[in-house]
Amino acid sequence: MYSIKQVVEMLDIPSVTLRAWENRYQAVTPERTESGYRLYSQENIEDLRWLKEQTEKQGISISHAVRLLRARKEKPIEDPHAGAGGTPQEAFEKMKQQIYTALLEFQGERANALIDFGFSMYGYEAMFHQVLVPVLVRVGDAWEEGTATVAQEHYMTHMVSNRFYQFFHVFPVHAHLPKVLAFCPEGEHHQVGLLLFSLFLRKNGAEVIYLGANTPEEGVMAMLENQNRIGAICLSLTGKELLPYCEGLIKRLSEACPGVRFILGGKGFEGAEFPSSEAVAIINEPAERWQDWFDYLFTGVKSRP
What CA–CA distances, in Å, run from 69 to 44, 254, 281? Predict the structure, then answer.
């Protein structure tokens, strides 16, 4: 057993930080002497050393690190690289399965710990494109097939979408770029592609007003009355049924917001034609080519991708 002074010297963690981790986040629970002094076990030491590494080297917040530690203790998170001959794609597949299973069983703490673990290993872009988006697609398919309940679908979508939203506030905004309004038209409930593209725009410094799926037209019009810096509107459409409505919507939006540029994505817009090609851009390229489109639309690069 070790005193708090010994732990401070051993791990180079200030005593005030150590107490905060214990009291606020319940990182470890040391024993107490009859006089009330803390005594730390070897297991406590190893836990604190691991938490320090996660916060300092991996950049994970202490609250997320504690959550990850608890999940590891409750049900150890298998390193997706473990095992001979494993490839990165096999690691992603294993992580997708672990996260999907945790969410399907409403194990939110474990799912978030797994996601934190993935962010620390792969970075946010790889996790979003290789793991979280496929998880959302899979639960959507499971709901349509009847193998996942409405409650499971709503819960899983909410949990994963929240991780997307967290990154909206991480990147700085560049004032010289136009403000972007992003939403799915009324009747369109699939927003994964729009969410990813909006996050991509935020990473590039564009301020994004994200309204999400199934957005009523009257709400958009009311918002535009109070926003005079909207330079681009992003719309996402997965099916052709709403295309006629969207064509009329784009016309009405352009009248309400003259000079605005439209960025359209999703299978619903494939093959669609609009009178002014300069004001409307249909992006049907894979995510790795989005940067070319951004440079062309927003930074003055003349060569169209």
Answer: 12, 51, 46
